[in-house]
């Protein structure tokens, strides 16, 4: 099956610093990638939709200047949490899919646990 | 709005017994439904999806789900549970994110499955 990787798997940073998370589709080209956030024992909340070569579409309530998303190629999307604060601590998960067909399956990365001190 | 509901926070089953994890949906138009499983500190793994066709959908690891239009349900089932099936299960429904972004997923809150020996 399709494989999506994330790096790093775990990161601890100081408040006020920025953190970049990478999401890669390893064996397929992803026209669209999604970024989700998951709080402990809660569901995944969609943060933004990212298309290769264009600006990301953010969900309501998600600050685009704080969560910078870049989708520079068909296999790589990055999420940068700028000026991170403890409330940004969470599990961030990306997913990738090919095409825009309703039948396309999203494949998820293993997630990145961010802890902001 | 397209949404799914998982009425149970936790399901407990003895190994070898059949298991059911419930999901109901609320959508306009035809629903496109998915089941994913998440192991601790891991990303989501795709189990199965319903797009159209047979109401009984077979997926990975022996799981299947039955689409029931009259009851607006998409329950996940397995005839004989394994201890290794213990995990967090998410039901999801396709949602449109615009003509260029295809479809993202709205997730239910998740159901924790515990299979005891």
Q: Could you characterize the architecture of this molecule?
A:
The complex is a heterodimer of chains A (117) and B (117). With 117 residues, chain A is mainly beta. In chain A, strands 2, 4, 5, 6, 9, 10 and 11 form a 7-stranded mixed sheet that branches. In chain A, strands 1-3-8-7 form a 4-stranded antiparallel sheet, with no helix packed on it. Chain A contains no helices and 11 strands. Chain B is an all-beta fold and 117 residues long. Chain B is built from no helices and 12 strands. In chain B, the strands form 3 sheets. In chain B, strands 2, 5, 6, 10, 11 and 12 form a 6-stranded mixed sheet that branches. Chain B is globular, with a radius of gyration of 14 Å. The mean pLDDT of chain B is 91. The chains are: A mainly beta (117), B mainly beta (117). At the A-B interface, strand 5, strand 9 and strand 10 of A face strand 6 and strand 11 of B.
Strand content of chain B: over 45%
Cα-atom radius of gyration of chain A? 13 Å
- What's the tally of helices of chain A? 0
Radius of gyration of chain B: 14 Å
- SS class of chain B: mainly beta
Straight-line N-to-C gap of chain A: 37 Å
Average pLDDT of chain B works out at 91
Helix proportion range of chain A: under 10%
Shape of chain A: globular
- For this entry, what is the oligomeric state of its chains? heterodimer
Helical segment tally of chain B?
A: 0
Number-wise, the strands of chain A total 11
The strand count of chain B comes to 12
Order of helices and strands of chain A: EEEEEEEEEEE
Mean pLDDT of chain A: 89
Largest interface: A-B, 33 and 27 residues
Question: What is the percentage of strand-forming residues of chain A?
Answer: over 45%
- Which blocks of ≥5 consecutive residues of chain A have pLDDT under 50? none
The main sheet of chain B comes to: 6 strands, mixed
Fraction of helical residues of chain B: under 10%
């Amino acid at each position: 099956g399709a494989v999506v990787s994330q790096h790093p798997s775990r990161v601890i940073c100081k408040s006020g610093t920025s953190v970049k998370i990478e999401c890669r589709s390893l064996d397929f080209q992803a026209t669209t990638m999604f970024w989700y956030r998951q709080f402990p024992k809660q569901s995944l909340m969609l943060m933004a939709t990212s298309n290769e070569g264009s600006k990301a579409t953010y969900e309501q309530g998600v600050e685009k200047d704080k969560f910078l998303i870049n989708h520079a190629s068909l296999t790589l999307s990055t999420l940068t949490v700028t000026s991170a604060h403890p409330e940004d601590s969470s599990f961030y998960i990306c997913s990738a899919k090919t095409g825009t067909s309703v039948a396309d399956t999203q494949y998820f990365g293993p997630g990145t646990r961010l802890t902001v001190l | 709005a397209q949404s799914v509901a998982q009425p149970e926070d936790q399901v407990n089953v003895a190994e070898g017994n059949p298991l059911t994890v419930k999901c109901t949906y609320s959508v306009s138009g035809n629903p496109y439904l998915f089941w994913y499983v998440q192991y601790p500190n891991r990303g989501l793994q795709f189990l199965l999806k319903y797009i159209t066709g047979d109401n009984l959908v077979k997926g990975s690891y022996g799981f299947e789900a039955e689409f029931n239009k009259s009851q607006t349900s998409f329950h996940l089932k397995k005839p004989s549970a394994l201890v290794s099936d213990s995990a967090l299960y998410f039901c999801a429904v396709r949602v449109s994110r615009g003509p260029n972004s295809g479809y993202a997923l709205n997730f239910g809150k998740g159901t924790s499955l515990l299979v005891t020996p």
